[in-house]
Amino acid sequence: MGKTLYLDCSSGISGDMTVAALLDLGASEQRLRGTLSTLPAHGFDVAVTRVRKSGLDACDFDVRLDAAHENHDHDMAWLYGHLDASDHEHGHAHVHDHEHAHDHERSAEHDHAHHHHHEHRSLADVCAIIDASAMSERAKGLVHAVFGKLAEAEAKAHGATPETVMFHEVGAVDSIVDICSAAICLDDLGVTEVIVPSLAEGHGTIRCAHGIMPVPVPAVVNLCQAAGIALVPAPVTGELVTPTGAAIVAALRTGNALPASYAIERVGYGAGKRAYENCSGVLRAVLIASAGSDDAGDGDRSTVTKLESDLDDCTGEALGRVIELLMAAGAREAHAIPIVMKKGRPGHQLEVVCNGELAPALERIIFENTTTIGIRSMDMRRHALPRTPDGIETPYGRVATKLVVMPDGRVRAYPEYSSVIEACERAGASFQDVFHATQAAAINARSGDAREA
Fold first, then answer.
1. Which residue of 102, 154, 278, 300 could cross-link 384, Cys pair, CB 3.0 to 4.6 Å?
2. pTM of this prediction exceeds 0.85
3. pLDDT of residue 25
């Protein structure tokens, strides 16, 4: 069963804060570094350190660029140099002074003789980098979802299309690394549900390549408007929510309200880059579980996305292949149902159930591997009973089994197909013999545990 992540964004959110908070939760730094090394991008290294923010011990994640790729995006004098010096010092010591999907992060020139270099990439360019890496299919799907949201927001701001808009800031190496790192960490932690009630945002203005822009900047406004994300004004002069941070929430959030009661499993704190008054400068990430859900046998209640498409000119072999690809990419379920279409033509309805953040990547697989020219999608509520994997000893050897807790507390055993087949081949027994022997052994094991208790 997947894990539920709650993001407390009372100090805003940015890409580096998100990665730092997930690492502090327990995501593997070793796996992160190993996977990042497969990105076809150069000129960067990452540093993971401990810092103190508002008296709190927090993790700091920093993408460090070499001289050829440095863009001076941490230069607060350039970002806020248009403000009065005293206001700048006391009002908006910026907590996340890095990735922004608008031009103030990687602009062309600034007042202090620094040259701000930005790499311009299209959505297709970024997707090519993602797809060429060794990230898991699920992690790639998360990254595609985030960049898809950013492309839509930037296209709206610039009067372009997602396919033609050029990324300036988020097309640079450090921003790509931030977003990929967040996806790798979420995948490593096994997070499938993300709860974000609201985002705290500051006020005032910030310098961009196109001039002085109001806070929140256009990309953040477009992202929050499209995704229905609530913004809460904070007593801070400056930007708390970066476009990358807003895009992560817009793409990956599955809920906006905490359960009526919940248990805290782990907590992580991700540090921003600057400290200032009226804000802690950290993103708090919490792994939670609904209190008492296991005892009540209530299970997992979540929202999933269903994709479907009708096909009357796709071969059975092609359908089989696309189902394999969809399941490998993280779909919860994928199948084809025989239907009769208009004019009596036989066909199939391809149905896919997945977490919402994976929908863009799975739609791409469907378009590329079937003859469809359109896909319908809808959000659905899902209720899954609690289940745990187990290994059951049988006369035919150990068989992997899924134990499911019914609402009345009874437990059902579901032997795993592949493990049953292995036992059949190992013992020369029939499928039915091994299957029923495994169920009986599981029931006996549970009865024995109950007697001992």
1. 300
2. no
3. 96
CA distance between the termini of the chain = 26
Q: Which two tokens stand for residue 423?
A: 């036992």
Which tokens is 421 given? 């087949």
Q: pLDDT at residue 156 above 60?
A: yes
Q: Could you write out the DSSP letters of every residue in 275-290? A: -BTTB--EEEEEEEEE
Take residue 68 and report the two structure tokens written for it.
């050829």
CATH 3.30.70.1380 fits 303-384, yes or no: yes
User: How many other CB atoms sit within 10 Å of the CB of residue 253?
Assistant: 20
Contact 239, 215 (CB under 8 A): yes
- Please list, in sequence order, all residues whose beta carbon lies within 8 angstroms of the beta carbon of residue 180, skipping any fewer than 6 positions away: 35, 36, 39, 130, 133, 135, 139, 143
Tell the residue number behind the tokens 């709206």, with chain if given. 156
Q: What percent of the chain has pLDDT over 90?
A: 51
Q: What is the DSSP string of 161-229?
A: -TTTPEESSTTSHHHHHHHHHHHHHHHHHTEEEEE---EEEEESEEEETTEEEESSPHHHHHHHHHHT-
Model confidence at 166: pLDDT above 50 = yes
